[in-house]
Design goal:
CATH topology of chain A: Chorismate synthase, AroC fold
Largest sheet of chain A: 5 strands, antiparallel
Largest interface: C-D, 107 and 106 residues
Strand content of chain A: 15-25%
Strand order of the largest sheet of chain A: 1-2-3-7-4
Oligomer: homotetramer
Structural class of chain A: alpha+beta
CATH superfamily of chain A: Chorismate synthase AroC
CATH architecture of chain A: 4-Layer Sandwich
Distance between the termini of chain A: 40 Å
């Protein structure tokens, strides 16, 4: 396994869904960052289960504790260890999947790769792991605050319901005003209804989360193989259930002509910027100072409340029962995860960029 | 900069468009791989300029030489260095962009980040760099041959012209039968006409390359942060002009219900496989033995044969002249690049997977 | 900071002397290793304080708990997190060093580098951190057992008292028979007396630990920059208070002629080996199948029970008081640490070597 | 293999003794460093063969060329590729070792590990490889000049002849005044005579190179596992024929009492420094502003002009003939290599330290 991501600001993830807990280590966080525990908890609360009718009804407080690296309220440069203990861990709820592979889950691949697997609630492959990532992302955000860089995200699509407005036409401060986390409150209602309908049908549905990073300085990104867009994409594709990533004009941009797609550069009273932003804030793998925006596609949650045909460990046909407490659509709770992972990348590349020039 | 990618099978890229040449080092290639030079050259020929009316008319033979690591026709375990010297390097062709930033190129961002830039033909940010990647990819393919893993790619979209057939319905052996590298020869003709029309309009257009990796063993991929899909995505997003990546059902999959999207598992006379493959061959970040397929979105080439408004190094308004020899659409020549980068990832993860179990 | 070591079998260290505790994550441990908790505790017991009159009188049980990665008594391939909570943490014992820099400690350098430091008991720079390393080393040893590789160490020098016998002339099974951990029981007594005398003088003294790795297969080590000897040296030089490392003939070998130093190769009934072993089991950075042996020099412990002159945080002259509970000589407790770090390197390079050849 | 070292300022080594040449890539060198080619050549000249009667009589000019990364005399941030082509490559000189393993060389271990080896002149395991390192070190020195950090080295021991003076008592400007590279000219003569005597005896002898790094800022080094001393040690142990490394008081320090060994801290008119420097300029893995000094032990060169008994590839007893042109003692030519490797580490850690604090 490879449970670390980052170059300077590095996070290492650990834990399982139904073991002692999940957690994260942040190594390379600069010393002296004020660690606002209330903020960290508020970020975890955005991700936790049981927030509304359209999220899983599991009840987990997702309280956290620092095990190391914070002294008198500040980072010390030492690795910051955060533990989030498991509470609502009903292992026996998972006896029915002990010996059978759930379709489109990681049961089969983990078992084949490792020859053993902690089957309880998905074990290491559970999305519960992302609680640690959100905690690490909160610390990244605290660091980025000092650089004025903001990482936001919102739901832009659920099933066929797709926002036609771009992030520029939306009021992102409304994202938290509804359970779907879509800043267009009209669309949010429709999305809520759709998810609730899907839930009643004991089914699930996919969606898209859009990320927006603003106030980005020019010069972040390390071409050729740590282009900023590649690093953000890598981080997003690490999130459970993600099947696609596009930045700037993305897949729609392929239909355009260069003469339209190119972003003209102008000097606006000393601030150099582009008149359009099809590039999505990155050119040649390096930030150009414009907003970075991107879409992340989440497939429908694999756990459905219906019986499905599969096989057991011995290779015999078997039925996977649909039970437990699960999300009918993952994107509302994925919003803070997308923000966290983008903040972790931005923190890392902000520090990396400090090495681009020699400081005497 | 960060010019190395990979964990075990690692490539390091170097060189500039109009310096002495470009090249690549492959470190971690197992010893004893037969190095078929004819094959490597044939792969380079697929990427080289001047292949047809719809690619750039620059003439570069892209001949290569080994500088190290190959002895008596085989890899020795030592780093393999490949040099591809520049020949058709008319530096003075680029005097017109010495002091002006081309829109949607990396001129501005490189200059700001580094305070200096080799402006000739894009220098380090030129797509010419990918010649080295294709050479490295050829060696990865030679290694993967022993594992029977095949990495293929083809053009599936140019502008609005999009293949409706999936890779399963196509005869991929036809990909090289036409200049567009689309295996559907009817569609290839249409695409050719479109690109040629765009060329005559002195403009450019985007496209999509689809990659297919077949005969993949179960168990490749290192969750959480080196999931196979994330590693492939990272590699694709490292290619010049790429704005999007999706694997399996991708962005279309978000519209589906879980009950439809889930890939049922069955035992087909001892071979465990899934009846559908919306997962795209990866579950929980680990290959499940099904074909891996993905789409890569390329924006329209930024260099157009039209004048554009921009600024110069001093921040004054300036016009970028449209001249030189460039591709009206990058995807035909991007096909071998996509294949190469996917082969490099697969070689790396095949070796990494050899560490998953202890061998006594 | 950089708190991770290793390529495949990687450990990440965290924690502080007087915070919640110390710990370690092992990422990349193969799945299916039986985790013998009794053995891990016995290794920790060899390192823990308070073992005899000549070690610090602090009482710490150094009990550990798994937080992740172990399921039904086996490793699962997931990161193994081990927590060792602090118990005997009298923070106020350290108020006297809050604002003053102890000579030859890391107080000044941490304060200057990070601008903040957890001063309690040395915080992050405390040797207490190595408890986590010993736990990780125990797991490495459990893995290496399957390969029959053994990592041993013993005290070969305290002050001027130096063993004249090589490891081959000693019975290493006697190492644990005395408090000094010197397998020559006569010398052990002398060393004990010396350390005890130094202790009574409220002073400290240095020493040497010799490591021996036996039953090593041919082929471990990744030249050029991950030579096996360099990796072992790196690991040893990471241990607190280490000032020197030599492998094989080491510093004495420089006095020899090549004709004497060279290790002749012979075929002993099918087993190829060398008649002498001045190389210390490594040639060209790669193990040659002979025993690996090396010496590690530990300086005298910096904390002495005497007053010393120094400065405070404001730069004023200040006296550091000699108080607390500390080791008069670190080498007896360093033996398990040297073993642990060598086991971690050997586990890592055993797995890395599994990538040297392609397995079809 | 693993042919890259460094975190930010990274070098990748490639090439073989009797292939096309050797070389190096420097990735992560900051942009804007003036590349003084004359200086680079002068450093290579210090390492090249044929400098005097006591070095190998091979004649290699070791001329170099830039293949990438330098534009208009400056680094651009792109990878700098340096090629040093082989000239005096008489491959047939090595036919006698094609099938036989030279004692204490890497022939056997390379063959066993890789199943194939470029036997000509040692191939990849030849010390010729270090020419590339010296070139990279020259660029590191050019960068360090701007920080005023100086990396020097000299021969302090040949066989039993050991300098009793510390580096502080020597005039290091005299190092280049003699062929041995010992700054004590009296001792240099004795050493020269000894080496020349050994040469006439067709034998070889070992030695020690002492490195001194001066004007080091406080705060370089990344504990726990990238302590500055561990990184320097790792780099030194990567050099061919090195068997030992000690920093500061080293192995002698183990004999001292803490009360003597500890370096008292004082404030000397605003400059905080230590009255002694047994620590060797590093405390807790971090530089404290004092000089860093260390010893590197080189074993006697394995190639001797005498016949030796060994085995051939089939395991039969065989005689290795003593012929060719080799160094009777490696340390005079190792001085620039030690300097180069220490400069590479210092350049890397200087850049890494730029990430310790957040810069708004």
């Amino acid at each position: 396994m490879s449970n670390t991501i980052g170059n300077i600001f590095k996070i290492t993830s650990f834990g399982e869904s139904h073991g002692a807990g999940v957690g994260v280590i942040i190594d390379g966080c600069p010393a002296g960052i004020e660690i606002d525990e209330t903020f960290i908890q508020s970020e975890l609360d955005r991700r936790k289960p049981g927030q509304s009718r359209i999220t899983t009804q599991r009840k987990e407080a997702d309280g956290f504790e620092f095990f190391s690296g914070v002294f008198e309220g500040k980072s010390t440069g030492a690795p910051i260890t955060i533990l989030i203990k498991n509470q609502d861990q009903k292992s026996k709820d998972y006896d029915h999947i002990k010996d059978v592979y759930r379709p489109s889950h990681a049961d089969f691949t983990y078992q084949e790769k490792y020859g053993i697997r902690d089957y309880r609630g998905g074990g290491r492959s559970s999305a519960r792991i992302t609680a640690g990532w959100v905690a690490a992302g909160a610390i990244a955000k605290l660091m980025l605050r000092q650089l004025k860089i903001a990482c936001q995200a919102y739901v832009s699509q659920v099933g066929e319901l797709q926002l036609s407005k771009s992030y520029k036409e939306l009021d992102l401060s409304q994202t938290e005003s509804n359970d779907v986390r879509c800043p267009d409150t009209e669309m949010a209602k429709e999305m809520f209804e759709l998810i609730d309908q899907v839930r009643k049908e004991r089914d699930t549905i996919g969606g898209v989360v859009t990320g927006v990073i603003s106030n980005v300085p020019v010069g972040l990104g390390e071409p050729l193989f740590d282009k900023l867009n590649a690093a953000i994409g890598h981080a997003m594709l690490s999130i459970n259930a993600v099947k696609g990533f596009e930045l700037g004009s993305g897949f729609e941009g392929v239909k355009m002509r260069g003469s339209t797609h190119n972003d003209s550069i102008e000097n606006n009273d000393g601030r150099i910027h582009t008149t359009t932003n099809h590039s999505g804030g990155v050119q040649g793998g390096i930030s150009n100072g414009e907003d970075i925006y991107f879409n992340v596609a989440f497939k429908p949650v694999a756990t459905i409340m219906q019986d499905q045909s599969s096989i057991d460990k011995e290779g015999n046909a078997a039925t996977v029962q649909g039970k437990g407490r699960h999300d009918p659509c993952v994107v509302p709770r994925a919003v803070p995860i997308v923000e966290a992972m983008s903040a972790i990348v931005m923190a890392d590349f902000s520090l990396l960029a400090q090495t681009n020039k020699l400081r005497g």
